[in-house]
Amino acid sequence: MYTLLLIAFTMIVSLIITPIIIVISKKLDLVDRPNFRKVHTKPISVMGGTVILFSFLIGIWLGHPIEREVKPLILGAITMYMVGLIDDIYDLRPYLKLAGQIVAALIVTFYGITIDFISLPIGPTIHFGIFSIPITVIWIVAITNAINLIDGLDGLAS
After folding, report:
1. For Mg(2+), which residues are the binding ones (predicted)?
2. Which domain holds residue 129?
3. Is 148 annotated as a binding residue?
4. Which has the closest alpha carbon to 155: 5, 2, 12, 22?
């Protein structure tokens, strides 16, 4: 029950600060302008990652007040946020962005946080063994890019 309340609270925090961050980013001209490669037709905030990071940190702070196991997640999240922010502002080349995302994911795995197995609802548990680190890195990078893809509309991902 506590977990559900924590998720609900962080979601409410996200919903409250998203419009505030959008207004601030437009005033500071931290926006992504439309062009032939973009789906949006008007400038949108590049600060959506700020909302996601802030909500994540609030949830971590309330749920697990800076336990040893949580520090690598925080460091990885901040690194991923910085890569995304730099990309949004300076339009990084894809290989540099991917390299930064891999570094952020490796920070997490370096501290032993990996996806070691999956349990299927119908069937066996699959243990990854020596493949747990590359699978974890691929998963973190893939999820990050999936969120980035849906963030073409103002505030959608956050």
Report:
1. 148
2. 2-150
3. yes
4. 22
